[in-house]
Design a protein that fits this description.
Elements (H helix, E strand, L loop, with lengths): L26 H14 L3 H15 L5 E5 L5 H9 L6 E6 L2 H7 L4 H4 L3 E6 L10 E7 L7 H14 E14 L3 H17 L4 H11 L6 E2 H10 L4 E8 L2 E7 L1
Parallel strand pairs: 1-2, 1-4, 2-3, 4-5, 5-6
Antiparallel strand pairs: 5-8, 7-8
Helix pairs in contact: 2-3
Length: 247
């Protein structure tokens, strides 16, 4: 989002709907996405700010950095603004053209420092190579479960020695009491950010069977099966967590 233009307020689900359609990253969502995700995902701002610090540590000269599901480019902007590493090429991938249309203007400062390429395609079809960092920020949860292993295995194979994957996701808990408690706190977080009960309910209905979260154990088992040597959770806020996975 341009520094001179405040984000538009998310009111996508503010009015009652006779039928709530499946969530999609269409024009309406793209227009308010920055406000939507910041008011909906606890810890999102910290995830972005620390992503730049992570990139400083792990980016390697002459490699590529991929943001798979780059949306409006906030992840690339955070990393690119911190990096002085030479000969870095950023690749932002998203299958929503409305998102990418709004992404490029947000990367004006990064464009002055690094090469940035944006691609409108499904991340399952994206060639990935010579990567020192791959970012999946709240993206894998939208990929069908049966396609997640193959994607992570390709990412692992694409990483140079010492490369990392940053994987941020909404998570589930095996303990039903913990699941209920953290879901309640998440909804309270949304209310504190101005969302009504109607908005929370309608958006939740729209995301059912579209955003499919998994447990921490499920993620860690899949990362190991995909070839990653180890992983660790570096940030968790309520029912959202971010992993670092190392080749």
């Amino acid at each position: 989002m341009s520094e001179n233009q405040p984000p538009k307020k998310d009111q996508v689900y503010a009015d009652p709907r006779a039928q709530v359609d499946a969530f999609a990253f269409d024009e309406g969502v793209a227009d308010v996405f920055d406000d939507m995700i910041r008011r909906s995902v606890p810890g999102y701002g910290m995830t972005l700010s620390l992503l730049g610090i992570i990139a400083q540590h792990y980016a390697k000269p002459g490699t590529r950095i991929y943001d798979l599901g780059c949306s409006l480019g906030a992840g690339i902007a955070s990393m690119g603004s911190k990096l002085d590493t030479p000969d870095i090429t950023f690749h932002g991938i998203d299958n929503s053209q409305p998102m990418l249309d709004r992404c490029r203007p947000n990367l004006a400062d990064v464009d002055k420092r690094h090469t940035v390429e944006l691609h409108c395609q499904n991340i399952q079809d994206t060639p990935i190579e010579n990567a020192s960092i791959v970012v999946l920020n709240f993206t894998l949860q939208f990929i069908p479960k049966e396609e997640r292993h193959e994607l992570l295995a390709r990412i692992c194979q694409s990483l140079v020695p010492g490369g990392i994957l940053v994987l941020s996701e909404k998570i589930l808990f095996d303990d039903p009491h913990i699941q209920e408690d953290l879901t309640t706190l998440h909804h309270d977080f949304k209310r504190a950010n101005g969302y009504s009960d109607l908005e929370i309910s309608q958006k939740r209905s729209s995301l059912e069977n579209v955003l499919v979260p998994e447990t921490i154990d499920a993620h860690e088992s899949r990362l190991a099966a995909a070839g990653f040597a180890r992983d660790e959770i570096w940030l968790q806020c309520f029912n959202f967590a971010s992993f670092l996975a190392f080749k």
